[in-house]
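G., the chain you wanted modeled:
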Amino acid sequence: MARENENGRGSPKLICTIRKILIYADDVVHVFVALALLLSAVFMLVFTATDFAAVNISSILLIINDILFVLIIMELFWTVIRYLKRQEFSLKPFLGIGIISSLRRILMLEAQMSINGHADYYSLEELGVSAAIVLVLVLSYFLMAKVEKKSAE
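Predicted structure as tokens:
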């Protein structure tokens, strides 16, 4: 147990050592997360390559869906890399992930509706909600870029 000084805190040297160990452990965990994300993206691309075997509308839609998913994984990967480089946190990558995810869902809904030949109420409702999400996220991205530009001046 750490000896307490007159302020009621442990020795500064011990606290600094513990802090360094915890920061190192945090970095190790983030490196493993980055590697897991990178491996997931590679495995997803390999899995996607199997859809090229049968070229039809369904397989092409699956390929587009899977590639957009890989983009989402890679954006998360770069967020972890930015953290490891001690760069400032930004919401932009997460807004990008949200936009890509919503567009991915819109494409899949459109594909399902065209394959089925009709659109039910719930599909149209989900399509509208996804389109609204894209609109809000793009607007947020635009406003954030504008604020960052003004703060840089």
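The longest helix spans residues 12-49.

Shout if anything looks off.
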